[in-house]
Design brief:
Blueprint (H helix, E strand, L loop, with lengths): L9 H12 L5 E2 L10 E3 L4 E6 L19 H24 L3 E6 L5 H17 L1
Parallel strand pairs: 3-4
Antiparallel strand pairs: 1-2, 2-3
């Protein structure tokens, strides 16, 4: 698992390039904030997490399939990841941040345009 990237993943870079092309400026992986968010938009007081469907146990998603071997260990790990996500979101929201979580399945070709349009709409309203 040490080879699994936690930063600068393809879905994350896709979102960053899109935001930059639309004129949004951001900070990356701010270690001072809970959960080390992938993208921080200070001007909009918004944080974006770009999550892998498997690693964050995205429910009802074809990319999240619990492994058949060592199942209990994986279940515990992925449950802990989800609990950490919820805890970090609560901490950030209590400090006045708007938190947006995107999943890799939302950034696939068939849903990409709708997801990114929705993201810009949320940032423009906020």
């Amino acid at each position: 698992m040490s080879q699994i990237k936690g930063k600068n993943t393809k879905p994350e870079i896709l979102v960053r390039k899109f935001l930059f092309s639309k004129g949004f400026r951001y900070k990356l992986h701010d270690t001072n904030l809970a959960g080390k968010p992938d993208i921080v938009l200070p001007k909009y007081k918004t944080i974006i997490f770009v999550n892998g469907c498997f690693w964050h146990a995205h429910e009802n998603c074809k990319y999240y399939v619990l492994p058949k071997s060592n199942t209990q260990w994986w279940l515990d790990k992925l449950t802990r990841n989800k609990e950490n996500d919820k805890s970090n979101t609560r901490k950030l929201e209590s400090n006045g941040w708007t938190v947006i979580s995107l999943y890799e399945c939302q950034l696939k070709k068939d849903k990409l345009e709708a997801t990114l349009s929705s993201l810009v709409a949320k940032l423009s309203v906020g």
